[in-house]
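Example record

One chain of 204 residues, shown exactly as stored in the release files.
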Amino acid sequence: MQHKTVDCRGLACPQPVINTKNALEEAGVDAVTTIVDNDVARQNITLFAKNSGYTVSEEEKDGFYHLTVSKSNKSSPGPESVIKQQSGNTTDVGPVYFVTTNSLGQGSPDLGQVLIKSLFTTLVATQPLPSALLFLNTGVYLTCEGSPVLEQIKKMHAEGTAVLSCGTCLDYYKQKDKLSVGNISNMFDINNQLIGPGKVIAIG
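Predicted structure tokens for this chain:
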């Protein structure tokens, strides 16, 4: 079987993940070593590999990350890789909430905070629960320390709702170290959730 190297230095999310995935899908390729130059790409490729059931190893050389993703001993996909289905019927799949703001609606920020808390309190009490909560832009503040809806998100996550926060957004707002629930994700995985069987509801 073939081992391929993919140089993704200088590429922004989600291109390193896409390039790695495409290389793994080539005929005869059993393992791919992807070279990246930033921590976000390193985390995104690692997450992609684990969610796809691949094994992944990491080595740092000359200031760059060398991530080897292998199909050998492939395991079951990770829990965040597919939208949770409460039953085998796709009509029972909970909606996917695409959250791009930490305040609901236009106008008073204080009122927006009250409304966003009211929304997530309602979601916890609604069946089926959301299949996934996807947070981008200022929406990532809701999954971090100090969030007014952290308790509600943690409860849904414990019940099986996938919670994904954009790694690029967390980096931009310097919130990565404050993430308190769910997983750091990338646009590739977020898009996979958006095109899944669940109805998508945009908040923002």
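Notes: Residues 81-90 have pLDDT under 50 and may be disordered.
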